[in-house]
Amino acid sequence: MAGADGDDSLYPIAVLIDELRNEDVQLRLNSIKKLSTIALALGVERTRTELLPFLTDTIYDEDEVLLALAEQLGNFTMLVGGPEYVHCLLPPLESLATVEETVVRDKAVESLRKISQEHSPGDLEVHFEPLVKRLASGDWFTSRTSACGLFSVCYPRVSSTVKAEIRQHFRTLCSDDTPMVRRAAASKLGEFAKVLELDYVKSDIISLFTALASDEQDSVRLLAVEACVSIATLLPQEDLETLVMPTLRQAAEDKSWRVRYMVADKFSELQKAVGPEITKNDLVPAFQNLLKDCEAEVRAAAANKVKEFCENLPEDNREQIIMTHILPCVKELVSDTNQHVKSALASVIMGLSTILGKDNTIEHLLPLFLAQLKDECPEVRLNIISNLDCVNEVIGIRQLSQSLLPAIVELAEDAKWRVRLAIIEYMPLLAGQLGVEFFDEKLNTLCMAWLIDHVYAIREAATCNLMKLVEKFGAEWAKNTIVPKVLGMANDPNYLHRMTTLFCINALSEACGQDITTKQMLPVVLKMSNDQVANVRFNVAKSLQKIGPVLDSNALQTEVKPVLEKLATDTDMDVKYFAQEAISVLVLA
Amino acid sequence: MSAISASEKVDGFTRKSVRKAQKQRKSQGSSQYRTQSAPVELSPLPQLKDAPSTEQQELFTQKLQQCCMLFDFFDSVMDLKSKEIKRATLNELVDYVSTNRGVLVESTYPEITNMICTNIFRTLPPSENPDFDPEEDEPTLEASWPHIQLVYEFLLRFLENPDFQPSIAKRYIDQKFVLQLLELFDSEDPRERDFLKTILHRIYGKFLGLRAFIRKQINNIFLKFIYETDHFNGVAELLEILGSIINGFALPLKAEHKQFLMKVLIPLHTAKGLALFHAQLAYCVVQFLEKDPTLTEPVIRGLLKFWPKTCSQKEVMYLGEIEEILDVIEPTQFIKIQEPLFKQISRCVANPHFQVAERALYFWNNEYILSLIEENIDRVLPIMFGSLYRISKEHWNPTIVALVYNVLKTLMEMNCTLFDELTSSYKADRQREKKKEQERDELWKKLDELRLSDSALVQNNSHGLQNNNNNNNNNSNSSNNDDTEDKSADSAAALPTDDKEPDVLVNIFV
């Protein structure tokens, strides 16, 4: 056995090298994806001395292979002998961090960040930090871009002289002359600020932040907005006004809509980061401007934040700010020319009612809800309907029900089946809030009409909807309102409708209970076993299997069993199959 | 609601033509106007040609200032009178700088550039259609085109005026100006991009100090396009300018230019919308190769690296480009890349998509390529033979089969003996390949088992491996049979099962 062992430990590197050189990318990829298997077979020492140098030398390959390699190496610490040797992984990852393809590079950086944690502080200074420096001063932009993501992981664990060097490198990259590098630096600015000592945040980060926020490229400026959130969180309140606010004000009025969009998108985070005083004085007017922005994209992003912004306003004069400053803008947005803006607003506007209370809601918000319920765009209407619960809590849904009904009916008959599907999904919620009487009177017909929709997805959703309604209103209600109608469809000339009956029974039997299932549903199902369409017959078998557990053993033996046995001898092979399956599942054999 | 037809109810998606018609109605965008406060009404100034020559200069400046007023083109009826005055004035200005001599005195340069900057430099509006597909959809047209067009026209005439002095103009047409100009290439409006192309070309020609900067910024735009956003409308236009720039590069090529070729132009081939600018891109690449033939090998290797795996349309484009390169290739360069290149071509002729196969087979209609193949038939034929032979029997498309027969015939005529040898060894070769594949499967299976038993391995090394060997002997009965069959076909002695593993190992090492 000893000889065989020797061979076994020899071959993986040979196989790997062979496979790595294979012409077929897929085979190269396979071998890389199993790199850990090979390393395991090689043992830690040979992995370090043979495998890793080989991998470092063969970095030129298809990006897909490189991606897999970069990912593997992040989990390789144990395979090279633990944290003590983890620095062996740096050379191949360094090369991977310089390749052009972004996904490969990002993965290499991710792996480097991961293994940086496994370095001892000493190794970090001896091996890791020099690598970061080399990347940061690389010729081609790719290595400098990668370096940006590595500063923050080594900074906290190195000596103060090395820290100073790292800060210097980061500064240099923030003013790099390729915008790609500046973008990378800007996107890591917040993260880097978090690991810096407060004094350096004030002295270094702020000046970098200010410079990046006034970069000539809007793609850089907008990233500074993101960093603004982290930086503002780090600074004491008294410094915000002088250090952050001038830049933030400027960003909110930037000439590029992309930057303004970013401000709108990050508004809640910004609001939390700068605190209530600055919010009152600066952010409220800025938010008003964003809600009135000339670009629809910006307005939509701001509209999305209306509820969150209002919620987070300081409570002492929240209502006053909303009523005098925010609500007038919101009113305008209800009739905006752009449907995305309206639908963004519709998805949050109902949330304002809890903040403003009953009287304000009835007086000011209700007219807006009603207007949006009549909006030409179905998405706006849907968004309103999907958030009805917020209003229900404050003023009760009755206030809305008269306008609600036409809106629901219109959506229920919309030409787009996805819209119909969306409204069906809100039915149980609506039914719960409108109550059983209103439902029976106004909505029941709709729910039944969906059962014979042209689109299967709608029929399916309608079936599921019935089940949820029965869960809400109870078996007694089902017995009187739904079950007769569903069973009536069993005699429909269209076999699709007959099948819908079976699908409904599948869904409803459990919720309706044994009594209704045995007395009302079972006879219908059994009768349908003589249907001339095979699809109906094998669905009978499936239904019997499904409702079997709800029935008592007497019904099973005397009624179900004979029918299934008959179906098991059907001429159609699918019917036979499902009948036999049902027999064995229900243990009737 | 009841008017909805049943078919529409079934398919909720409106037909594309309907969607397009809706889009066209509002397919105009501009965020230019929105940055300014409400415009004041313009009053017409006297005609330049009617003014006494002493006052012309002053009037020219006044008109330039008047044209700095911007109007809202979204509202087509707003400020109609003033819009018309500005349009007429711009027309007059265009006329004035293109027909008159001596009008470009130094003091007018700042006024001129100010008027141009105010009108054309703006943040482009968000696309009306977030999933804008340049190959399918109608572009959004610039709403303020009636004015902007004339401003572009004016800029062009200004640059082309015989009195134009770059030494004065460079104070205004500086790096910042160029940067803003380049950003406008992302405009969705093809008319605008066309003007920009000519203008940038003139600027590149006249401002030597800006050349390196322009190249670098185009570089950045492309890199951002390739690796970050995958979206930029003006790639084709910029490549067209580059085509003529590359044409003028001095020899030997600077490292900067070679880097541009390898790190920017070649990766541009990976872009999703390659079809929109492939012609211009291939032209640039071929220009480089005509300048410096030693670049052929890295370029072809680069293309092979990025060869499309699933997109047949792109594959056809790549093949087209390869043919363009082969048209200008030097025989010494051909020898360097023939092996990897023909391996790819042999995969292409075997492609089930007939357009790919057909495009590759068309290479054999090219006289120059044929002569290169003939010179190197000993190397090319063994690579191509397998695919061609198989396809001649298996391809579903009769046109391809017919083409393959012709190609096989041509190749046979080039070296009859080799052809016969390959034909007779074809079957054995396939079997050897099959066997190799099986051996690979076996090995990986073994490696996987190694992993399965890795906990045992950590505890007790030899024990783990022993387990592993046992597993292998137990579970591979059926594959052993196949293996044996193959070996006998290969006229090698069938080995007993127990000795199988070392044998497999040896094979792999070789």
Q: What do you see in this structure?
A:
- The complex is a heterodimer of chains A (589) and B (510).
- Chain A has 589 residues and is mainly α.
- In chain A, 78% of the residues lie in helices and 0% in strands.
- Chain A has 34 helices and no strands.
- In chain A, helix 14 (218-234) packs parallel to helix 17.
- Chain A is flat, with a radius of gyration of 33 Å.
- Chain A starts with a helix and ends with a helix.
- Mean pLDDT of chain A is 87; it is low at 1-9.
- With 510 residues, chain B is mainly alpha-helical.
- Chain B has helices at 6-10, 16-25, 53-66, 80-99, 108-120, 145-160, 166-169, 175-184, 190-206, 211-229, 235-247, 255-268, 278-291, 296-305, 312-328, 331-349, 354-361, 367-375, 377-394, 398-414, 416-452, 454-459, 461-475, 477-489, 500-509, and strands spanning 28-29, 141-142.
- In chain B, strands 1-2 form a two-stranded parallel sheet.
- The longest helix of chain B has 37 residues, at 416-452.
- Chains A and B meet through helix 1, helix 3, helix 12 and helix 27 of A and helix 1, helix 10, helix 21, helix 23 and helix 25 of B.
- Chain A: Belongs to the phosphatase 2A regulatory subunit A family.
- Chain A: It comes from Pleuronectes platessa (European plaice).
- Chain A: Keywords: Repeat.
- Chain A: HEAT repeats lie at residues 12-50, 89-127, 166-204, 205-243, 244-282, 283-320, 326-364, 365-403, 404-442, 482-520, 521-559, 560-589.
- Chain A: Residues 89-270 form the Phosphatase 2A Regulatory Subunit A helical domain.
List key phrases describing it.
heterodimer, A: 589 residues, mainly alpha, 78% helix, 0% strand, disordered N terminus, B: 510 residues, two-stranded parallel sheet, 25 helices, 2 strands, elongated, disordered C terminus, ARM-like (chain B)
